[in-house]
Amino acid sequence: MIKKPKKITVAYEGVIQRYRKYLPVSKRTPVISLQEGDTPLIYSVYLSAYLGDNYEVFLKYEGLNPTGSFKDRGMTVAVSKAKEEGSDAVICASTGNTSASASAYAAKGKMRSVVLIPEGAIALGKLAQALIHGAYVLALKGNFDDALNIVKEIAGKYPITLVNSLNPYRIEGQKTASFEICDYLSYAPDFQIMPVGNAGNITAYWKGYKEYKKLGRIKSLPRMLGFQAKGAAPIVRGHPIKNPETIATAIRIGNPASWKQAELARDESRGLIDMVSDKEIIAAYKLLAAKEGIFVEPASASSVAGLLKLNSKGYFKRKRHASPAGRLYSRRKTTIVCILTGHGLKDPDRAIKSIKKPKVLPATLKAVVKEIGY
Ligand code: F0G
Description:
Layout: H1 15-18, E1 41-43, H2 45-51, E2 55-61, H3 71-84, E3 89-93, H4 97-108, E4 112-118, H5 124-132, E5 136-140, H6 144-157, E6 161-162, H7 168-174, H8 176-185, E7 191-195, H9 200-214, E8 223-229, H10 234-237, H11 259-268, E9 272-276, H12 278-292, H13 298-312, H14 315-319, E10 334-340, H15 348-354, H16 365-371
Parallel strand pairs: 2-10, 3-4, 3-6, 4-5, 7-8, 7-10, 8-9
Antiparallel strand pairs: 1-2
Helix pairs in contact: 3-4, 3-7, 4-5, 7-9, 8-9, 9-11, 12-13
């Protein structure tokens, strides 16, 4: 007989336990958690120096969540609430990370998961995750936007819970990332830069910052700076994109569900939503790996690509003395936080395609020593 372990004390129990009082949960909510959140806010030595003396750049490494992306913060709340409400199945459309997260949390919660993905357009690691966690994975001959329309209809008609970011509990969970940033810094950053795909995450961060300000936990609000990929930039271009294209498959979305909320975050914070090319994304992707030792997936690198683009235009200099709170910056440096949304191991193909392949040598000491230059 297997003995039950004595009650184990764990220091950290995930975002619901840590931020319970700011989330729509009660004692009755069964908490389904993989101990997500509490991700590091890494001071970027390279980027801070690159921008100059008056700046400090931090990287919020969300790739260190249990399934390798920020989606886990929202999924713990969405799946716990689905369970509380008596649901036994979840469904989502996904460019990959949502499906990986939904299937892992459903497995933990002993629920069924169904995921719809665009055929051939999701990174290998994400597909592997959904499959191994036991999701019913269906690849559609269409893009993410087509898949989202279908799951919305299914969830509206049948007893299965939608766990895309249209589910408000997803936004609630994801807002905890802005709480963590403020708790760590003890103030809000001046600028926050992040990728924008279906636009749930920018909506969530902005909600989190506004709530912390209302509670008096922070005095000012950041400007929200969102970046779409050039071939998938409906918000920047002002109209849906029928056939979105980018190597950053996570944000290959032509008609974001939270379009209006993203514009609201942009406008209320006096920020912007701009776009970066695949070339700029790959340059930032390589830079993060080579200079910071941080491996992200391409979509995540668009925040740093955006930082470099804005910096080259002098954006941060111009904005220095005009934060939303109208505060002067004499007492501290301008703080910029870039959100790194997903882990690089999600998309190993892209890494291998971006870098020279390893050289093949005979298995001799002589050949290796000669090759490495000794
Ligand atoms: N970064 C990564 C790694 C993502 O997977 C996503 C979205 C985003 C950024 C954009 O976030 O959609 O809230 O604006 N991935 C979704 C998915 C669409 O299905 O995994 P967003």
